[in-house]
């Protein structure tokens, strides 16, 4: 039996599977995000540990006999977070999360240093880990002086599970300290940010062993041991493992809190200037690229809060099929944007509001605006040579047929919906545990799910969506200081 743990921004999900991938039990536990100042986003790592205790206890209660046969644990988590610990493994301050934008100036300074983009394969975004440490060095020097190790969120959870300072390649690729092509820490990149190699965790591949569950936890959980904890993965790499998107051309589009358009690559082909992320995959000798928008379903959640209607109610008021673009344009830059603009200061807008419009028009425009933002990512990915042969649609937003039909016609790509399978980062993490324990090939374990419906682009509408996308693209300069 294998346990997959996915540490999300708002909660932790755990699933227990057998070696064939059948889900035997699952559980979730929520926690909060703190925003003490504008642009700040933090969490207490102790909340992650408590959530892990809660979900493991729930999984064990649901399937006690299966849980007693646990042999491996895989972990995934939200990327880029800066969890700072001292020489005694004590947390020095709340973790600075991926969507925290306080280190915009520090990111810009690091990004201009000679060789950084060439080493890391990426722009240094404000959400990455390295600029966060530069911010701490400047604004909290006493804390910075005590930093013995910097751990990514899932790897702090690993520290509690195993007592080891270990990370994997896919998660570490989002720090701006990793040589992504060589799959190793870069002394030059570390030095540029005032860091040292001894402050970094040991690196392993995601499908390799990354520590053993502590004996005290084995005893507490009623396990005979040993229980291997896999290297694991950052959340998007883990989601790719869960849906079988490993090789060239296989990918997914995720309508989650943020929006992701991801594709697997068999070789390393970065293009940092495009604001496309080029990261190590969770399996050896493979990479992946993705475009990221910061507010996908978060845009709908924002609208929901302001209209006093649930996201489900807003979505249900729309038809099942899109009929062409609206005259109202929404730009979803509520917290800035990553791909393709790398602009943490730009903010969103509605353009073309009319007195006759109602909440349905606003909802439709939000879904179209997110779809256009993902089209931005598609164009940026195509510029790196990426091709899309299989594209699954996942995430909470994929429950809306209107959104899916809008997105398919905007991207001019078919979107496949998985049929009745447990997917996502928790499944990917559990699959990585299978590989770490058994030595099985990732290609044999991380197969694609059976396809249910396929949402085809409406060829009668693609030209209209192309025109609307062109208008959307032309509006960005008006919202930024670059305009």
TrEMBL record:
PROSITE patterns: FGGY_KINASES_1, FGGY_KINASES_2. InterPro entries: ATPase_NBD, Carb_kinase_FGGY, Carb_kinase_FGGY_CS, FGGY_C, FGGY_Carb_Kinase, FGGY_N, Xylulokinase. Residues 1-242 form the Carbohydrate kinase FGGY N-terminal domain. It comes from the Bacteria. It is an enzyme of class 2 (transferase). The active site is at 235 (proton acceptor). Keywords: ATP-binding, Carbohydrate metabolism, Kinase, Nucleotide-binding, Transferase, Xylose metabolism. Its EC number is 2.7.1.17. CDD domains: ASKHA_NBD_FGGY_EcXK-like. It catalyses: D-xylulose + ATP = D-xylulose 5-phosphate + ADP + H(+). One of its GO terms (molecular function) is D-xylulokinase activity. SUPFAM superfamilies: Actin-like ATPase domain. Catalyzes the phosphorylation of D-xylulose to D-xylulose 5-phosphate. HAMAP family: XylB. PANTHER family: SUGAR KINASE, XYLULOSE KINASE. Belongs to the FGGY kinase family. This is Xylulose kinase. It comes from Pseudooceanicola antarcticus.
């Amino acid at each position: 039996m294998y346990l997959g743990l996915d540490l999300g921004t708002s909660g932790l999900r755990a699933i227990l599977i057998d070696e064939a991938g059948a889900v035997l039990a699952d559980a979730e536990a929520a926690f909060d995000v703190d925003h003490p100042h504008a642009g700040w986003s933090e969490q207490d790592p102790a909340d992650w540990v408590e959530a892990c205790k809660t979900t493991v206890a729930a999984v064990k209660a649901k399937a006690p006999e299966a849980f007693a046969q646990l042999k491996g644990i895989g972990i995934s988590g939200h990327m880029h977070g800066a969890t700072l610990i001292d020489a005694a493994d004590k947390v020095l301050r709340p973790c600075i999360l991926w969507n925290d934008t306080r280190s915009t100036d520090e990111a810009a300074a690091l990004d201009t240093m000679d060789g950084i983009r060439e080493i890391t394969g990426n722009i240094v975004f404000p959400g990455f880990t390295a600029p966060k440490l530069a911010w701490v060095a400047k604004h909290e020097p006493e804390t910075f002086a005590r930093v013995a190790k910097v751990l990514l969120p899932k790897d702090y959870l690993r520290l509690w599970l195993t007592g080891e300072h270990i990370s994997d390649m896919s998660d570490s690729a989002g720090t701006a300290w990793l040589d992504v092509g060589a799959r190793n820490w870069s002394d030059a990149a570390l030095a540029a940010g005032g860091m040292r190699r001894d402050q970094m965790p040991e690196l392993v591949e995601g499908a390799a062993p990354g520590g053993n569950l502590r004996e005290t936890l084995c005893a507490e959980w009623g396990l005979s041991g040993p229980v291997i904890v896999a290297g694991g993965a950052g959340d998007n790499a883990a989601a790719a493992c869960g849906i079988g998107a490993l090789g060239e051309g296989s990918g997914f589009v995720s309508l989650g809190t943020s929006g992701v358009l991801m594709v697997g690559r068999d070789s390393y082909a970065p293009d940092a200037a495009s604001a496309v992320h080029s990261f190590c995959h969770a399996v050896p000798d493979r990479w992946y690229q993705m475009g990221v928008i910061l507010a996908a379903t978060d845009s709908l959640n924002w609208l929901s809060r302001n209209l006093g209607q649930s996201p489900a109610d807003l979505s249900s008021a729309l038809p099942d099929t899109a009929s062409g673009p609206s005259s109202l344009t929404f730009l979803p830059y509520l917290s800035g944007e990553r791909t393709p603009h790398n602009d943490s200061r730009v903010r969103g807008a509605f353009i073309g509001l009319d007195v006759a419009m109602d909440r349905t028009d606003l909802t439709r425009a939000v879904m179209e605006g997110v779809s256009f933002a993902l089209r931005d990512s598609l164009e940026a990915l195509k510029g790196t040579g990426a091709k899309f042969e299989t594209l699954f649609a996942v995430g909470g937003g994929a429950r809306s047929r209107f959104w899916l039909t809008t997105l398919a016609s905007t991207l001019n790509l078919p979107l496949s919906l998985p049929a009745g399978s447990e997917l996502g980062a928790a499944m990917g993490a559990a699959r990585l545990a299978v590989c770490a324990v058994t030595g099985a090939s990732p290609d044999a374990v991380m197969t694609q799910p059976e396809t249910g419906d396929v949402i085809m682009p409406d060829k009668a509408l693609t030209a209209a969506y192309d025109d609307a996308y062109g208008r959307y693209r032309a509006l960005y300069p008006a919202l930024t200081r670059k305009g």
